[in-house]
């Protein structure tokens, strides 16, 4: 009997020991899980902080660059106005006709006359040429064979230096095309708001890094009449606020508010002066943020920024066309005038 009691006690001790070891293992595993979870949270927090700081730095650069450009445009416009007045007073027909216009007299804030070189003024006063235009083509990998290849065989070779192609998940650069003009955005390849706004944000940001006068967006099912586009933009001052395009509906977009937007299906053009003012709402990827706020696609988001936030009207251009129209109704003798 004593032997059985002793054995029972030993058994109980062994069982208790096993339970304690199992419990200790579980506690250690739980502790490791908690520590790993905390470290993951810290890592995510640090990563997000770095991303936010990077975005802030990029956005700050956009704002500073835009502000400097606006100041430069204002100064150049002062010189232009002064030259026009001097030419009118002296009866000068062109800048090249008067050697004294090589250095122009400008009155500074103190009222003193100083000599100011006008090398950039001739550039401001000249007409827009094809190289002043940034043409962005939005496409996707699934449309490579059905659409993009057709554009490469038709109008893009006429404006190869001015055309930038924005795609997704496609690293195969078209033959005889500039490698740095073929941008893989790594955006979603869907036709939903997030992917569309992602591509538009890249288009805008890369245009802002250029020194071109006009930002013209088209889809991959558009044919662009390049000579007509150049002649058309020559009628407008790139330093002013111009939002040129064609709406797809006969009334303003209504999303708890009303605003006009130019459909991307017909293409639209934005002047440099207006693009600079869009920076707080569009620069550094902010087109995606604005699109998320109003929950509308890329062309609607651009219209919201320009027409609603900046109060710049849409100038409707009947020569812009989309697939929604009956293009067969355009008289044949007017085709060369369409953009």
TrEMBL record:
KW Chloroplast (keyword) present: no
Coarse class of the protein's main subcellular location: membrane
Domain Fringe-like glycosyltransferase: 128-339
Transmembrane intervals: 27-46
An example molecular function term from Gene Ontology annotations: O-fucosylpeptide 3-beta-N-acetylglucosaminyltransferase activity
Annotated compartments: Endomembrane system; Membrane
GO cellular component, one term: membrane
Membrane topology: Single-pass membrane protein; Single-pass type II membrane protein
Keywords for this protein: Glycosyltransferase, Membrane, Signal-anchor, Transferase, Transmembrane, Transmembrane helix
Broadest EC class assigned to this enzyme: transferase
InterPro entries xrefs: Fringe-like_glycosylTrfase (IPR003378)
EC number: 2.4.1.222
Pfam family, one: Fringe
PANTHER family in UniProt: FRINGE-RELATED (PTHR10811)
Family: Belongs to the glycosyltransferase 31 family.
Name the record gives this protein: Fringe
Species for this entry: Mytilus galloprovincialis
């Amino acid at each position: 009997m004593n032997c059985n009691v002793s054995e029972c006690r030993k058994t109980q001790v062994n069982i208790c020991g096993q339970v304690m070891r199992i419990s200790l293992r579980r506690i250690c595993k739980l502790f490791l899980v908690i520590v790993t979870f905390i470290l993951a949270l810290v890592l995510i927090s640090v990563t997000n902080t770095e991303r936010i700081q990077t975005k802030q730095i990029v956005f700050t650069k956009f704002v500073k660059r835009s502000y400097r450009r606006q100041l430069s445009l204002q100064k150049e416009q002062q010189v232009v106005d002064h030259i026009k007045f001097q030419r009118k007073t002296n009866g000068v027909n062109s800048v090249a006709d008067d050697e004294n216009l090589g250095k122009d007299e400008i009155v500074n804030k103190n009222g003193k006359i100083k000599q100011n070189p006008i090398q950039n003024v001739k550039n401001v006063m000249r007409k827009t040429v094809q190289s002043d235009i940034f043409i962005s083509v939005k496409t996707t990998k699934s449309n490579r064979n059905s659409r993009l290849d057709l554009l490469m065989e038709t109008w893009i070779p006429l404006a190869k230096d001015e055309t930038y192609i924005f795609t997704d998940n496609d690293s195969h650069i078209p033959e005889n095309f500039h490698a740095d003009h073929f941008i893989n955005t790594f955006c979603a390849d869907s036709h939903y708001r997030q992917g569309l706004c992602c591509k538009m944000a890249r288009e805008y940001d890369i245009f802002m890094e250029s020194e071109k006068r006009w930002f013209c967006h088209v889809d991959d099912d558009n044919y662009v009449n390049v000579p007509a586009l150049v002649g058309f933009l020559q009628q407008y001052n790139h330093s002013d606020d111009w939002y040129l395009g064609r709406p797809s509906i006969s009334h303003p977009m209504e999303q708890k508010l009303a605003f006009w937007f130019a459909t991307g299906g017909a293409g639209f053009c934005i002047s440099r002066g207006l693009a600079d003012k869009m920076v707080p709402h569009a620069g550094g990827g902010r087109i995606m943020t604005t699109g998320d706020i109003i929950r509308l696609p890329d062309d609607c988001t651009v219209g919201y920024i320009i027409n609603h936030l900046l109060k710049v009207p849409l100038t409707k251009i009947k020569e812009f066309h989309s697939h929604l129209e009956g293009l067969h109704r355009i008289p044949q003798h007017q085709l060369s005038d369409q953009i």
